[in-house]
Amino acid sequence: MASSSCGVALLLFPTPAGPWLKTASVRLLRDGGFRPSQVLLSGYSETVAPLIQRFYSAPIEGITSIRDGEVSYQDATTLPRGGELSHSSRPVMKRFKNYGPKERHGPSQKGHHHETKLPGSGRDGGSSRKGSHHGTKLPGRDGSFQKGSHIEKKLPDTPFKPFLFQIVLDASTSSLVPVLDAWVKAGNRVEREKVNMVLFHLRKQRMYNKALKFMEWIDRRKLLNFEERDYASHLDLIARNHGIEAAEKYIERVPEAFRSEVLYETLLVNCVCRDDAQKAEQVFNEIRELSLPLTISACNQMLLLYKRVSRNKVVEILTLMEKENIKPSLFTYKLMIDLKGRSNDTLGMESVLNMMKENGFEPDFGIQTMVAKFYISGDLAEKAEEVINAMEVYVKDNRHAIRSLLDLYAILGRPDDVERIWNLCTEPKLEDFLAAIKAWGKLGHIERAEETFDTLVKTTPKLTSKYFNAMLYVYAENELLDKGKKFIERMCLDGCPSGPLTWDAVVKLYVNSGELAKADSFLVNVTEDNPDRYPLFRSYIILLKAFAEKGDIHNAEKIFNRLKQTGYPARTLPYNLLLAAYANAQVTPYGFRERMKADKYSPSKIQIERLNRLDSL
Known about the structure:
Elements: H1 2-5, H2 8-12, H3 26-30, H4 48-56, E1 64-67, E2 70-73, H5 164-170, H6 176-185, H7 192-204, H8 208-220, H9 228-242, H10 244-253, H11 261-273, H12 277-289, H13 296-309, H14 314-323, H15 330-342, H16 346-358, H17 365-377, H18 381-392, H19 399-411, H20 415-424, H21 430-443, H22 446-459, H23 465-477, H24 481-493, H25 500-512, H26 516-529, H27 537-549, H28 553-565, H29 572-585, H30 592-598, H31 605-615
Antiparallel strand pairs: 1-2
Helix pairs in contact: 4-9, 5-7, 7-8, 8-9, 9-10, 9-11, 10-11, 11-12, 11-13, 12-13, 13-14, 13-15, 15-16, 15-17, 17-18, 17-19, 19-20, 19-21, 21-22, 21-23, 22-23, 23-24, 23-25, 25-26, 25-27, 26-27, 27-28, 27-29, 28-29, 29-31
GO molecular function, one term: mRNA binding
Keywords: Repeat, Transit peptide
Family: Belongs to the PPR family. P subfamily.
């Protein structure tokens, strides 16, 4: 590409590349069991993001989870349908409540309106009984206000009028429309700022089904004049809940004046999230056929897709970018660095870095961390040290450097350097504590992780479940089931809210401790008891992988089917793990190709080769 991207394709590719517990009692926990990643965030392209962000105040930038040199892009299909609730959402927060084993065949007990039951791992029935509720939140651990807690001023008594977002979050999905109609009939007005607040909270908590119902209510009642960003957001929610075909039909209802590249890029992002190459290519070509602007955002989405499902096609998009004089963005370079690093092409990765600098992009701490991890995984210790030393220069001035260095030194197994960097952080923020807890956990220094967490609690008593989950993951990663169960008790007693991230930590705790049946039962129960909030994609993958390694075809098939029933689309990783289960059991997977075809999934070359080998059995 002219000055900024000239020769990108040739340089990069010289030749085409061939629960949380919703019904668990503390007593049951003690008895040995309980019931049950910067890139773009899911659902938004670089063009769509700023538009939707202005309207919804929702976080558009995403998560890049880097582990062992691998960048994992957390997209719409990997995110839960419901999310963690924070302590800041106290009027609508659902807390842990302790219950005994869940009754399967008798009438269930009713709980308080604002509380949910926590599922356990037992499946053999038993009467349902209520446990005590420990949701009271004290000012501090010792009864007094700790540093970091808020001392509220006493306000004059005024009639309480709940916010619209509180009403929406408190209402069940089935009763949402009549509740909203009654709210309007009572004389309340729907204003854009109120809508912003509602959708912000629903998206933040991954409650996409309720968000769609709320959006449809606004549309049907003609309460707002929809603009470009509103149609794009509505389409995104339809795609998340009902799939691509439903989203395509919605486009036909959108006025032609609003059928812009923003709308089609939103559809493209959802296709990419589902690894649906055929549909993504169709939408990408449609953007060009309609003479809509072809943006770097759309090209990046195709690069992201091909990086996952068809790496030999990456060069086609890079060549198109050169032809159309579309300049790469920082995200483009991140994708290329990740692709080269995963391919163990160190020279190619360094070429991308040099090109990036020549075109005015300086690698941020995220990119530097990524590169250092690729060097570490490639046993290039000296080069990794060079990157780390370059980051050390900024350690006193930049908190991102501190967090990255804590992570890198933990991977390298250097506790003294972790301690040194942590001591340099004299006034740590919440994310600094989080990075330190994870670093000590990776090193296996459990006591130091616990000390850091306790310091965090004393500094900031009102923590969200995000920080509790980090400690729970430490126990899970180190296979400390007993400590994990005691920590779950603590979460229950503290009234800590739960959600898919917490459930994921519990599943990992069970699986890493060899308790696959309990992990399976836990997932079943949180799914049944949370119709609007499903477990994470990776929670199923952790369990599917464990069954596959054992050659347990029956349970692997069960998890695979449940993954699809939950709403996650057919993807490469689940199919690979299911095939691995058959391979480890030395059993031929009859009809597997037909299943893939029915799921509109195109097998990769590697999968076809594996199927051919299994057929010979």
